[in-house]
Amino acid sequence: MKERPTILVTGANGQLGKELQELAPLFPQFNFIFLSRADLPIHHVDLARNFFKEYHPHFLINCAAYTAVDKAEQEKDLAFQVNGEAVGVLAATCKEYQAKLIHISTDYVFDGAGSAPFKEDSPSNPQGVYGASKLEGEHQALQLNPDVIIIRTSWVYSEFGKNFVKTILQLVSERQEINVVNDQLGSPTYASDLAAVILQIISSGQWHPGIYHFSNEGVISWFDFAEEIKRIAGSSCTIHPVPTSAYPTPAKRPAYSVLDKSKIQQTFGIKLKNWKDSLQECFQKL
Questions:
Q1: Are 129 and 73 in contact (CB under 8 A)?
Q2: Could you state, in order of their start, the residue ranges of all structural domains in the chain?
Q3: I want to staple 191 with a disulfide (CB 3.0 to 4.6 A). Which of 15, 30, 127, 181 is the partner?
């Protein structure tokens, strides 16, 4: 009997890792191994190599990352270690063990100064440590292993972990009024949809390395997003639109972070869901 290919997932306790765990039973043709940050801190190089020696995975989905955008401004070395160097090590290790790597990156590699959706080859120009460290991870991965697939995504939320949807849900249930910025535009990504796309790519048997963009369809502001969350929740809280300048943060947020997703659609036959439909789905699970 032919052994089932093994898929190793790092960062298994994050939003995307949890959604992959939810979907895993639908893909019985694979053997999944989920590793949390406690099981495998990816910047511990020797540990990572040991896991490969032990499990000989056919695929690695790297969901592990340093994602504290503001904190990264103070913890630059750690952010670059986890999002940069460690990704390079994983890519090189995958090459050595002939495993395929799918790595998750971010819209923060761009400066957010555009008005047309960013393509995969649009000039990257990160405005903070987080974006710069994620871009470094992309560079290291592709340099050390040109056979990797990198998926950049934006505004990720799910029923797991901390995210915008859960924060707004809590605020509109507790308060009479809140302020939400309305001058940052982007597209939300339901982590469950991203997990499904990753597993669709792996199970398709088609492997086309390179950088891809993925999010749900639709261009909105954080204010629009909050209004829809409030509507589904049936809350009477008043949401006031405010400019980004009213909320200074240590790290600059991209004003425009819409990603062009035509490449992933054409290459892998991916169908995109509208952000409202996906938000509704998430609510049903919440």
A1: yes
A2: 6-162+188-216+258-273
A3: 15
pLDDT at 188 over 90: yes
- Nearest CA-CA partner of 132 in 106, 112, 152: 106
6-162+188-216+258-273: CATH class: alpha beta
pLDDT in tens, 256-281: 999 999 999 999 999 999 999 999 99
Task: Give the active site residue among 66, 130, 190, 212.
Answer: 130
Rounded to 5, what percent of the chain is helix, strand, coil?
45, 20, 40
Which two three-digit tokens encode residue 134?
A: 């994620």
3 state DSSP class of 41: coil
pTM of the model: 0.96
In contact, 65 and 134? CB cutoff 8 Å:
yes
The answer to whether residue 130 is catalytic is yes
Residue 31 has φ and ψ, to the nearest 5°, of -100, 115
Q: Residue ranges of the alpha helices (H) in the chain?
A: 15-23, 45-55, 76-80, 86-96, 129-144, 164-174, 191-204, 222-233, 262-268, 275-285
Nearest to 192 by CA among 215, 173, 174: 215
Helix (H, G, I), strand (E, B) or coil at 108: helix
